[in-house]
Specification:
The chain is globular. The strands form 4 sheets. Strands 1, 5, 6, 7, 8, 9 and 10 form a 7-stranded antiparallel β-sheet that branches. Strands 2, 3, 15, 16, 19 and 20 form a 6-stranded mixed β-sheet that branches. A 6-stranded mixed β-sheet has the order 12-13-14-17-18-21. Helix content is 24%, strand content 26%. The protein has 443 residues and is α+β, with helices and mostly antiparallel strands. The chain has helices spanning 39-42, 55-69, 76-90, 101-112, 141-145, 170-177, 239-252, 270-278, 327-330, 345-355, 433-441, and strands spanning 20-21, 34-36, 97-99, 114-117, 120-125, 130-136, 152-156, 163-164, 184-191, 197-204, 206-209, 213-222, 225-232, 255-261, 286-291, 297-301, 334-338, 360-363, 371-377, 386-395, 411-412. The N and C termini lie far apart (52 Å). A hairpin with a 5-residue loop joins β9 (184-191) and β10 (197-204).
Length: 443
């Protein structure tokens, strides 16, 4: 434990390392498509169920030979995990990865938005040596208990077990706040302009749905008209309905212009990004072009897509009424904010709105990931966990691919140096020079 030591992290690094959603989960960063090979998703029309082959027998024979030949006692499960870890690190695929069983379960839960905890997002407050609550998830245990955005967590634990956050590292404090459903999260927050009001909380952790879309009416305006800010943190299965809610609320508030903030958005699921783009584009517009190893090309268009209501992908259903529902509201009246950590599905979102001239693109050049990954559930072969491998390259609707290159914005604006050590969630609209430039770029 670092006594009294707090660290600052530059926004030039991947800022999501600073953001902790109080849950047990695993982020699937930089994956534009996640086809999980399980019977559950296959029934929803996503992925497929593979069949075992004779190669399994050869692998089993090799494992048995290694075990019987070794002088040392080799644990079979450890050996198998080592084989798959080695496979994912030596095949020349930068995105190949072996998930152990626990990580795979968390991966699946994370993509559906089903997580455990109290339901708050937090950042490190290095100025006040505490933890700042930046959002409280709707319907979460924290919301029910009365935790508010802006609260500062100054102690973890209550009573004799309370420890000052200032006396430990940010990571250690977060670890104490995390936990599974059915256990208690206990902490004390400081509230008020001078933080003089101390409020202890003892909250039973539950399952809750994460928020991938945050929104507000900006303190900025354009010609006296309101601007709606829609921040998409990633594209998972919660994103389409949350995007609808954000847009409907902002339009109801009278917003005439919109900024879609996908800075530090690592990507997500193809079905999710397709559903969101379908609301901003028109019938027959291209969402994505893909090419596999054999050179076979496929094109995905905006159209009706209906998933089983009982499946996880039901949130990504696109009906006729959804297609282009916000196009008139945002066409020529919006901007997309990007930076070097805007990747994968977030880049597809950016390039699509750029190609179809829906939005101006503002910020700095994006990450440059134009490849798709598939996740193979090894349970079908009698092994635990899953392996992620790259299965296709993908391209934006009308422009050239950006894999390894990134997307150049229409207006290039570096974040002000004086904000470099500030967390992006702790920057006010009026001081965010990239956001100000995005508003100015809207015609």
């Amino acid at each position: 434990m670092n006594s009294g030591t707090k660290r600052t992290v530059s926004l030039k690094t991947f800022i999501f390392s600073l953001i902790a959603v109080l849950l047990v989960g695993f982020m699937t960063a930089f994956a534009v498509a996640v086809n999980i090979y399980t019977a559950k998703l296959a029934g929803a029309g996503v992925g497929k169920t593979p069949s075992a082959s004779k190669k399994d027998d050869k692998l089993e024979a090799a494992i048995e030979l290694i075990k019987s030949s070794s002088y040392y006692d080799i644990d079979e499960e450890t050996l198998i995990k080592s084989i798959f870890y080695g496979l994912s690190s030596t095949v020349g695929d930068n995105y190949a990865y072996y998930f152990n069983e626990e990580e795979f379960k968390a991966l699946t839960a994370d993509n559906t938005g089903d997580n455990q905890g109290v339901g708050i997002s937090i950042i490190e407050d290095t100025v006040n040596d505490c933890i700042k609550v930046i959002s409280v998830y709707e319907g979460s245990p924290a919301e029910k208990a009365g935790v508010r955005p802006g609260d500062r967590i100054v102690k973890v634990g209550i009573g004799e077990n309370a420890e000052d956050v200032s006396s430990m590292s940010y990571e250690a404090a977060v670890k104490k706040l995390q936990g599974v459903s059915g256990t208690l999260a206990e902490f004390t927050v400081a509230r008020g302009s001078d933080f003089s009001e101390l409020i202890p909380f003892s909250i039973l952790r539950e399952h809750f749905t994460t928020q991938s879309v945050l929104y507000h009416v900006s303190t900025l305006d354009k010609g006296g008209k309101k601007i709606g800010i829609v921040k998409i943190t990633n594209f998972d299965l919660t994103t389409p309905p949350q995007f609808d809610k954000a847009m409907d609320a902002l339009i109801a508030e009278g917003c005439s212009y919109f900024v879609f903030d996908v800075r530090y958005n690592p990507g997500g699921d193809l079905a999710s990004i397709t559903a969101v783009l379908s609301r901003l584009l028109g019938t027959g517009d291209i969402v994505i072009r893909t090419k596999d190893r054999a050179g076979k090309e496929e094109v995905t268009y905006v159209k009706e897509v209906v998933y089983s209501e009982a499946g996880d992908y039901s949130t990504c259903t696109v009906r006729a009424a959804d297609i282009g529902k916000y196009r008139e509201a945002v066409y020529g009246k919006s901007a997309v904010l990007v930076n070097g950590s805007t990747a994968s599905a977030a880049e597809l979102f950016t390039s699509s709105l750029k190609d179809y001239k829906v939005s101006a693109i503002v910020g700095t050049k994006t990450f440059g990931k134009g490849s798709m990954q598939t996740i193979i559930n090894l349970a079908y072969y009698g092994y635990s966990g899953a392996v992620k491998v790259t299965n296709k390259k993908y391209f934006p609707p009308l422009s050239e691919g950006y894999d390894g290159i990134g997307i150049e914005p229409d207006v290039t604006v570096e974040l002000d140096e004086k904000l470099a050590d500030r967390n992006i969630y702790d920057i006010e609209d009026s001081e965010d020079n990239q956001l100000i430039a995005a508003v100015e770029a809207i015609k």
